[in-house]
Design a protein that fits this description.
The protein contains five helices and seven strands, in the order E-H-H-H-E-H-E-H-E-E-E-E. By secondary structure, the chain is of the alpha+beta class. It has one domain. Strands 1, 2, 3, 4, 5, 6 and 7 form a seven-stranded mixed β-sheet that branches. Strand 3, helix 5 and strand 4 form a beta-alpha-beta unit. Helix 1 crosses helix 2. The longest helix is centred in the middle third of the chain and has 17 residues. 29% of the residues are buried.
Length: 245
Amino acid sequence: MTKLRVRFFDWPDTHRLIPSRFSEGGTVLAAIADDNQELEDLVLLDGATNDRVKSEQQGGVGISMYELLYGVPNAHIVNAAFAHPGESGARFSDRTRGAWYAADSQKASVAEVVYHKGRRLAEIVDPDGPNQRPGGDVSTFDDWMSDFKADFHVLAPPEKFQEFLQPEPVPRCYAASQDLGRRLLNQGSNGIVYPGVRYPGASCIVCFRPALVYNPHRSERLEIALTATEAGYDHVVRQVAVPAE
C-alpha cells in the first residue's frame, strides 16, 4: 500500500447531518451543577460509579470517558458520535468505537443520508409497496457544522487508495478501510481526509479524536423525503424551521 501522507488542515464549516431527534439533550447532571468544573466532576463520578456508564464508555465501546468532552457547548452531540457506533460501524470506524464524519458541503452529507436510508428501505419487504418495497420515507436532519485545525492523514491521490473507497456492498466493503482506521488510530492518528464516495468531487473527514471537533453548532434543519421508483428511490430536500425552545 502507498504510504499515507499527513497534512495540516485549517478547515472551517464542515457539515454533518444528524437526525433531529438527537439534537437536543445533554446530561441531567447539568441541572445540579453550579459551573462547568462541577459538572465535569459529577460526570466523571457518575462514570466511575454507574455500571451502565462504565460498560458503555470503558467496556463495549472503545473510548474512555477521559477522551470525551465535558462542560463545552454541544459536547453531547460530539460524544454521541464516538460513544454510540453503528452495529456495522462506518467506513473507517468499527462497531467498538465511533468517529465524527463530516464533509465540505451539505450536498455531500445529504448524499450519504439518502444512500443509507434508501438502502435500508430497500431491505424491507412491503407486500403493498412498489416492487414490494416501502413507498418512501420522510425524516428531518440537523446540519451540524464544525471546524478542524490539526494534522490528518490523507488518501491522495485517490486512485492509489481505491481499496478503502469502495461504494458497495455495505458493510462488507468497509473491511479494508476499517482495518486501516484501526491501525491509524492505534498509531495516534487524528483521522483521515478522503474523497467523498457518494458525492463525487466532495472532500470528507473522519476525526478520531473528540477534542479536535471544534465549534460544533447546529445550522439548518432539513426535511429529506424519499419516494420509491422502479430503480430505487428519488429524494427531495427542503429546509424547515427549527421549533422554538
